[in-house]
Model the fold of this input.
Amino acid sequence: MIVCSCNFVSTKDIEQVVIDFLNADEWQLITPGKVFQAMSARGKCCGCFPGVIDIIVETTQAYHAQMQSPEPKVVELLTRIADQRLRMENAKKKAAAKRQSQLVA
Done:
């Protein structure tokens, strides 16, 4: 399934990049920016980033389940990823509000 229509990036593309990152360091924080950079792409409209974060979380959970990683460390990592998503959503809302106020002015 296409996740990013700006760069024609599929779910499978993202999952493979995430797995490659996890194979290199299973406890690193993987962000949409890192994923896109690894694919020689960049976020253009960034509307797909919340979905990319969901794929990162799902892939990371499956990876750690398969590796039988210690649960407390996995929960901490997933919490960090969730915090990243919240920061992105807040930044997106703030940018939209700023654009709206500029249109009104």
In short: The helical segments are 11-24, 32-38, 49-67, 71-104. The chain is about 70% helix and 5% strand.
